[in-house]
Structure formats: structure tokens, C-alpha cells
């Protein structure tokens, strides 16, 4: 999974074990399953990412899935987005300790300045952040057309995707699909909802917002 960079993954594991509970990054029950449930569970979604792409990890928290991805795939241009100052500090400490080439940004995906700064991503990842309706609203606008949202989910992934299909389409997302990563590697594969950005967001009338701006411009001629 991590190839010749496995020592970095082991060091990240040690850091989570040492600081995770005390700093509010993981729950006490997670210590015994850090490798399977957190590090490997995160790293396997690398199979969905093409070489040398731009990836934004939204709500990175303890650095999951962002840090394992950065270790497993040093070709990625990775940014970790996290709103909480103490977790931003943690992420910066980990990146320094592991000597990773990763950017950390403090903020929320729905904030205007964040969207301006981090637009046109090839992929946006999110792990246990929010239901698909909200997640799509926050994350799809950060993607280039053709870029993909990779939302790590649980057993209710298919139900959630069906329930929130209209909301996903409203922000420019495609039909979406549920895929399993790490089959044959993990005892329990990672479930990921994959949503491609296929168009601009639509307004209440169903028109594309970009088209609405062009119409107003045309009227002024």
C-alpha cells in the first residue's frame, strides 16, 4: 500500500497513538484499529485518483484521508482544508514531522474566499463530514468540470445517494455511484460515493447560473 514510504505511515500511526485521544482527534475505541479502519481505509481510495492530480481533502481533521494519501501517492498535489485551529496546528505538525509536500488551509468549503482560492480541483475527498446533500453543496463547486467528489461513507451510502440525488444535480453533480476500494486488500473494503461534476449549479428556475449571468449581460448591450 505505502511501498518504500511505509516508515512514514508507521510514524503517522505512532503520532495518532500518542496524541490522538488527548488532542481530540480520535476516540479511545479507535486506538486498536488505527491501521485497518483509518490509515489503510483512507489509503485505498488512491486507486480512484489519476496520476499528478489536484486533490482537496475537506474537513481533514486528524488528516484522514489526506495524510495517508499523501504518503501513498507523493505525485498528488494535496491540500488539507480544516476549520478548527487546533486541528490545523496538528496537521501542520504532522506534515513537518513527516516532511510531506502538502498545503494546509484553515477554512470551510462553503466560504467564498476558500472557493476562490481552491477552485478547479481534480478531486475532493471527504470522510465522515456530512450527509451527501450538504457535502455536494459544499464540495462540487470546488471541482473542475469532470472532477470528482470522493465521499467515504458507510453502509447507507446507496440510500443516501438516492435520497439526495436532486440536491446533487442542483449543484452540478452527475448521477453518482457507490464503489468499493481495497477489495482483496482490506477485510472490509472502503465504501466511496463518487460524484462527477458535469455542469454548473442551477438556480431555483432550473437554469444554469452561468447562463443567467450571460443573459443579464446580453440585456445590457
From TrEMBL:
S-adenosyl-L-methionine binds at residues 59, 64, 109-110, 127. NCBIfam families: rsmG_gidB. GO terms for cellular component: cytosol. Its EC number is 2.1.1.-. One of its GO terms (molecular function) is rRNA (guanine-N7-)-methyltransferase activity. It is an enzyme of class 2 (transferase). Its main location: cytoplasm. Keywords: Cytoplasm, Methyltransferase, rRNA processing, S-adenosyl-L-methionine, Transferase. The gene is rsmG. Belongs to the methyltransferase superfamily. RNA methyltransferase RsmG family. It is found in: Cytoplasm. The keyword S-adenosyl-L-methionine applies. Specifically methylates the N7 position of a guanine in 16S rRNA. It comes from the Bacteria. This is Ribosomal RNA small subunit methyltransferase G. The lineage of its organism: Bacteria, Bacillati, Actinomycetota, Actinomycetes, Pseudonocardiales.
Amino acid at each position: 500500500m505505502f511501498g518504500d514510504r511505509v516508515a512514514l505511515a508507521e510514524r503517522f500511526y505512532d503520532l495518532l497513538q500518542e496524541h490522538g485521544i488527548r488532542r481530540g482527534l480520535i476516540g479511545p475505541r479507535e486506538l486498536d484499529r488505527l491501521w485497518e479502519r483509518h490509515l489503510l481505509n483512507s489509503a485505498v481510495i488512491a486507486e480512484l485518483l489519476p496520476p499528478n492530480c489536484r486533490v482537496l481533502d475537506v474537513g481533514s481533521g486528524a488528516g484522514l484521508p489526506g495524510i495517508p494519501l499523501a504518503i501513498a501517492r507523493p505525485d498528488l498535489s494535496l491540500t488539507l482544508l480544516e476549520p478548527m485551529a487546533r486541528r490545523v496546528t496538528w496537521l501542520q505538525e504532522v506534515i513537518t514531522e513527516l516532511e510531506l509536500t502538502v498545503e494546509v488551509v484553515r477554512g470551510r468549503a462553503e466560504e467564498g474566499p476558500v472557493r476562490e482560492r481552491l477552485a478547479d480541483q481534480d478531486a475532493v475527498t471527504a470522510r465522515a463530514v456530512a450527509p451527501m446533500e450538504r457535502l455536494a453543496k459544499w464540495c462540487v463547486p470546488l471541482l473542475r468540470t469532470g472532477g470528482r467528489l470522493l465521499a467515504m461513507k458507510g453502509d447507507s451510502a446507496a440510500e443516501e445517494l438516492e435520497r439526495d440525488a436532486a440536491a446533487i444535480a442542483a449543484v452540478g453533480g452527475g448521477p453518482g455511484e457507490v464503489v468499493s476500494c481495497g477489495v482483496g486488500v482490506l477485510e472490509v473494503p472502503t465504501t466511496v460515493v463518487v460524484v462527477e461534476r458535469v455542469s454548473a449549479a442551477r438556480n431555483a428556475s432550473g437554469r444554469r447560473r452561468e447562463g443567467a449571468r450571460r443573459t443579464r449581460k446580453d440585456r445590457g448591450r
